[in-house]
Design goal:
By secondary structure, the protein is mainly alpha-helical. The protein has one domain: Winged helix-like DNA-binding domain superfamily/Winged helix DNA-binding domain (Arc Repressor Mutant, subunit A, Orthogonal Bundle). It is 63% helix and 0% strand. It contains 5 helices and no strands. The longest helix has 13 residues. Helix 2 crosses helix 5.
C-alpha cells in the first residue's frame, strides 16, 4: 500500500496527528481516543494501527508494559509545522 493510500483515510491521518502531538502514546490510549472521536470499535482502530505498522510508518520499540507508538512520520509532521 502506498503512503497516499495509507494516509488517505481520515482515521489514520488522525492517528498520525495524535502521535505527532506526543512521541510515545500507548496503543490503548490511541484506540480509546480514536474510538471516541470517530465512534468506531477498538478492533477497528487496531486494524488502522496494523495498516500503519505494516506500511512501515511506526517504529515500535519493545517496552516493559504495553506497546509504544513513536513514529518517524509524526516527527516529520511536527517539523513541517515549524
Amino acid at each position: 500500500m502506498h503512503a497516499f493510500d495509507v494516509l488517505g483515510d481520515p482515521v489514520r491521518r488522525r492517528i498520525v496527528e495524535l502521535v505527532a502531538e506526543s512521541d510515545a502514546l500507548p496503543a490503548g490510549e490511541i484506540a480509546a481516543r480514536i474510538g471516541d472521536e470517530f465512534g468506531i470499535s477498538q478492533p477497528a482502530v487496531l486494524q488502522h494501527l496494523r495498516i500503519l505498522r505494516e506500511s512501515g510508518t511506526p517504529r515500535s520499540p519493545p517496552r516493559a508494559r504495553g506497546v509504544c507508538m513513536p513514529w518517524a512520520l509524526a516527527r516529520g509532521a511536527r517539523a513541517m509545522r515549524g
